[in-house]
Design brief:
The strands form three sheets. The chain has a five-stranded mixed sheet. The chain has a five-stranded antiparallel sheet with strand order 11-8-7-6-13. A five-stranded antiparallel sheet has the order 10-9-12-15-14, with no helix packed on it. The chain has 22 helices and 15 strands. It has three domains: 13-359, no CATH class; 373-490, Rossmann fold (3-Layer(aba) Sandwich); 497-613, Immunoglobulin-like (Sandwich). With 615 residues, it is α+β, with helices and mostly antiparallel strands.
Length: 615
């Protein structure tokens, strides 16, 4: 009876939770890369201009003719529901990936039984590349969900006598959506069609064939318009990195198996040995996999379409089904399947933890671990002005092009002058110094944020030396071991206050004073004197509207120039002002400016800025 059946679907729940946990952990682990930024652009998500759905489709057709619209339309709707922060936008792929895993369970159940369905879902959930693309704001998780749904619906229609109308509708709609998600994904219904041609020609067979043809035919209008553009894009330098006939199967099997090619081969052999128990599922899996790979090799012989293994991820559920058949054979020989599956999940979790496996696959742009970089970018955007020069070094020399779009995305609508250090192109030192000077011009501040865990630009010492000719290094901080941020201030900034002590004088220049955070104010200043200033300190005072001192920060100015901060978190709503005092740390004597262009609150206290806090 039904009540006595093993509840395999209950075991699917922890599998889904593990996959969700691994992928959710990765949502903020790395910065958006160029293609993810394009997803924002294609979906018209903030900070890009907002347009209607009709205008979005027209824009995709006119500006990005090779990009099929399904994923971007869904992403636009998703962004409207959950927000447009990277974590929120990437979470769509988590949701779609979980659907793919659940549908793989349904596929295995329909093709063989619930046990095979659970095995296949577990294998798919333990695929490192599956987890990787469940965190990326691109269409590959959608391809997986749709291709698995198509395969399940086809199997139900072909092999179940009583199906109802829903599988027909699901098959048609899913193929149509897949065709309008990525044109290379059409290999899935084509592989299904290849298998379908080998079956007996019954009335149901003809109905399914016509459904497959009709669903794929919905792409014809788009294909007629876009095929020339697609061919032009494929001819744009891809031939140098396109997979060879040997690369395609080797890379696909290596990526799916988390590098365990021997294990995948063993499971395949075991599935073939025990073929009488699951002949239809085995034949379908082998024909779909081999047919897709042969078709891809043929396409790449004509035009370099396949340059990355992610274009083959629609095969992952079928490869998982094939592997599940092999594990079933082992289970029949009293080898505990649970141990194999748990080991597979554990291996996938370990391999996916650092992103290295996915990043080391051919033609993959290495992700940049986020760490404190988002906070650094946030601070620079808040403190800098359009007149400043902002320089980044975030990727290996020679790969700067890959970070151009992400940086433009981060600084969209700010009008800030942002470059990458490696984009400076002069070969000779004199020309390089001239190029640096032309970039800097008279910028009030120069910011340099760089990773120290990658190869440094050869000309970095020349860059910093040339900057130092006319700028003072005011700050160098390391928010984490692999990152440092430097801030230089222009020596030509006019003096804001002069202090005299007999025959000695001290000039102060305030290069920047602004509130950049709801609870932090930043002041960049330098003290210029003919005598050592190691005993000179600056005090930042916050006064409320009743002229009461409510917060104070004291900083010894041992380096001449410094970037000072004061935190006013916890202060109530109201008007406040930030005052500055210069004093001697030994005697406590406050220095009185002989002249200043700041408002004086007393003989020795200058107001740098005022602010209003709200609850």
């Amino acid at each position: 009876m039904r009540s006595h059946r093993n509840p395999y679907w209950l075991w699917l729940v922890p599998v889904l939770l593990i996959a969700a946990g691994l992928s959710i952990r990765m949502l903020n682990i790395d910065l958006l890369w160029g293609d993810e930024v394009l997803s924002y652009d294609h979906a018209n998500l903030a900070p890009y201009s907002q347009v209607s759905l009709g205008d979005q489709l027209e824009r995709l057709y006119v500006r990005y003719p090779t990009q099929s619209p399904t994923y971007f339309v869904i992403l636009k709707i998703w962004g409207g529901l959950v927000g447009t922060e990277p974590l929120a936008i990437r979470s769509l792929s988590v949701f779609l990936g979980l659907i793919a895993i659940a549908m793989t369970y349904r596929l295995g159940t329909a093709a063989v039984n619930r046990r095979v369905g659970l095995y296949a879902a577990t294998i798919l959930a333990g695929s490192t590349l599956m987890i990787y693309y469940m965190h990326e704001a691109r269409q590959y998780a959608l391809l997986l969900a749709l291709s698995t749904t198509i395969t399940w619906a086809y199997w139900r229609l072909q092999h179940s006598p009583h199906t109802g109308r829903w599988p027909w509708l699901i098959l048609f709609v899913a193929i149509m959506l897949l065709a309008y998600t990525h044109w290379l994904a059409l290999l899935v219904p084509l592989a299904i069609g290849l298998y379908h041609l080998t079956l007996p020609k019954t009335r149901r067979w003809w109905q399914i064939l016509l459904t497959l043809i009709a669903a794929n035919a919905t792409l014809i209008p788009w294909a007629l318009l876009e095929l020339p553009n697609i061919m032009n894009e494929l001819g744009d330098g891809r031939d140098a990195i396109a997979f060879s006939a040997v690369d395609i199967p080797g890379t696909v099997f290596y990526a799916f198996s988390n590098g365990g090619l021997a294990l995948l081969l063993l499971l395949t052999v075991l599935a073939i040995i025990d073929r009488r128990r699951h002949q239809d599922a085995l034949r379908f899996s082998l024909m779909a996999i081999i047919g897709t790979l042969i078709a891809a090799i043929g396409i790449n012989t004509v035009t370099p379409a396949f340059i990355h293994v992610r274009y083959f991820m629609m095969l992952w559920p079928i490869l998982a089904l094939l592997s599940a058949l092999g594990i079933t054979t082992l289970a029949r020989r009293r080898i505990p399947a649970a141990v194999l599956l748990i080991s597979w999940l554990a291996a996938g979790a370990v391999v996916s933890w650092t992103l290295d496996f996915a990043a080391d696959l051919p033609n993959t742009q290495r992700p940049i671990i986020a760490g404190e970089l988002p906070e650094i970018i946030r601070v620079i955007k808040a403190e800098a002005t359009p007149e400043d020069l902002i320089v980044f070094h975030l990727t290996e020399p020679g790969n700067e092009q890959s970070q151009r779009a992400p940086l433009e995305f981060q600084f969209q609508w700010t009008d800030m002058h942002v470059i990458q250090l490696g984009e400076l192109g002069s070969v000779f030192e004199d020309d390089y110094r001239t190029e640096v000077d032309d970039l800097v011009e008279d910028a009030p501040l120069v910011w340099l944020a760089q990773r120290t865990d990658i190869e440094q630009v050869t000309d970095l010492p020349i860059f910093t030396d040339e900057i130092s000719q006319n700028y003072l290094l005011c700050d160098l901080w390391q928010p984490e071991e692999r990152l440092d941020v430097r801030v230089w201030a222009n020596k030509a900034t006019p003096t804001n206050a002069t202090y005299t002590f007999g025959e000695q004088s001290l000039d102060m220049r305030v290069h920047r004073a602004r509130r950049y955070d709801p609870s932090i104010a930043s002041v960049i200043l330098d003290l210029d004197a003919a005598y050592p200033i190691s005993y000179t300190a600056v005090a930042l005072h916050i006064y409320d509207s009743s002229d009461q001192l409510v917060r104070q920060a004291d900083i010894v100015m041992s380096n001449g120039c410094d970037r000072l901060q004061i935190d006013f978190a916890g202060l109530g709503a109201g008007d406040y002002r930030l005052d500055l005092i210069v004093y001697d740390t030994v005697t406590g004597l406050r220095f009185t400016p002989a002249n200043t262009n700041f408002m004086l609150q007393s003989d020795n206290r200058m107001t740098l800025l005022t602010m209003t806090l709200f609850n």
